[in-house]
Amino acid sequence: MTKSCFAARIGKHLRLTPAEERALERLEENPRPVRRGQVIQREHEVVKELFVLSRGRLMSYVILPDGQRQILRVHFPGDFVGAASTVYGRAPESLVAVTDGEVCPFDKHALRELLQEHPRVAALMFVISQTERVSLNDRLASVGRSSAKSRLAAFLLDMFDRLRLMDEKLVDRFDLRLTQEEIGDALGLTSVHVNRMFRQLEEEGLISRENGAIIIREEQQLRQAGHYVNRYRELDIDWFPNG
Fold it and tell me: Which run of H or E residues covers position 220?
């Protein structure tokens, strides 16, 4: 079994060679503990490191001109975090720990060797970045056109599907670990409105909440309510370079 969370994430889509696994493991040689609320990277700072998240949860966000926070993405173990910073000298977003956890920082220039020597890994990193972009596009369209109920349903399902990709034991529940204010900052809603939509989804029998966990009661109906498409499965990788 690989020692690399990132390799385990990539391995859900592609059978890696031992050399590819070792290359990814080298990105995680210097784990660093983080505490909830700790800012790991600030928007506009010079980018010195990129990260693999090995434990816990992070989120990326920007501060809008009026001072409000827009949360862009919640990151889970196995995610390559800070990918947007690979093409900029200064960070386009901030990163903060949502929970206690562990990140594995590595120098941006380490990507050069990885991409030169392992083109399949480079191709899959590109594919994963595109799934994240399409998922973000879905949420952008949802915020612009969908109801608050639909936004929340899609957001919960997106989290559920991403966590289930890495843990097949997840059948109908997952730990939320986000405040209603944080969810509101992701969906363009007030925390009061988020609470109201949670109650509505519960009253309709689509979800329930139990000790911080979300239980999916009627998954298909929840998907219909959120106009949600799972962007993390059925990926087309037939065009990949040979291993």
Answer: helix 219-226
Percent of the chain with pLDDT strictly greater than 70: 99
* pLDDT band with cut points at 50, 70 and 90 for residue 83: confident
**CA distance linking residue 180 with residue 193, whole number of Å:** 9
User: The domain 146-226 is classified under which CATH number: 1.10.10.10, 3.40.50.720, 3.40.50.360, 3.30.70.330?
Assistant: 1.10.10.10
Long-range contacts of 41-44 (CB under 8 A, 24+ apart): 41/82, 41/85, 41/91, 41/93, 41/94, 41/95, 42/91, 42/94, 43/91, 43/92, 43/93, 43/94, 44/90, 44/91
Residues 6+ apart with CB under 8 A from 238: none
User: What pTM was estimated for this model as a whole?
Assistant: 0.93
What class has domain 5-117? mainly beta
